[in-house]
Amino acid sequence: MKNFTTYLFVMFMAMFWVFRIIVAFCYNLGIDFISVPMDFNYEIVLLFLTFVAMILVIKRSMLGAIIYLIGYGLYFGTGMYNVVMKINAGATLTDYTEFMFCLIGVLLPLAIFFDLLLDRNRKAHPKDKKTDWFYKNKEFDRKLDERADKNQYRIS
């Protein structure tokens, strides 16, 4: 994890994961909270899957981003569709908050996926600021001419 954006995305990923743990915990205890899980069993499976995906994203593996995108896309994508259909019929404040959480649940994995996708090119073609200014710059190429020192000194 060398990029600042990756640090931020993993932080948001962890914060949203902790938030979903709190939502599931409050739902299980019967406490009223801002949000409720759409499917409690799938939510528990998704929490464990998110932990694995978070470790893989920290290790810069595309598999982690794909797992995270598919899991959250299926869960929050269908939830967003259901909430939008409810909003069309008649909306309450809880419907809008559920829509906001579903939107976060869809956009965050997309952002992580594209961050890792763009980073694959950076991994394949790394840049080293210490040497690239010299080796990748045409104006610093050495050209030998007749005055070039050939280092053929004799000591007699």
List its salient traits.
156 residues, mainly alpha
Characterization of this structure:
- It is a single chain.
- This protein has 156 residues and is mostly helical.
- It has one domain (4-123).
- It is built from five helices and no strands.
- It is elongated.
Number of distinct helices: 5
Large-scale geometry: elongated
Query: What is the straight-line distance between the termini?
Result: 58 Å
Helix-strand category: mainly alpha
The number of strands is 0
Name the beta content range: under 5%
The run of helices and strands is HHHHH
Q: Uncertain runs with pLDDT below 50, 5 residues or more?
A: none
Number of domains: 1
CA radius of gyration is 26 Å
Helix share bin? over 70%
| Largest β-sheet summary | none
Overall mean pLDDT: 84
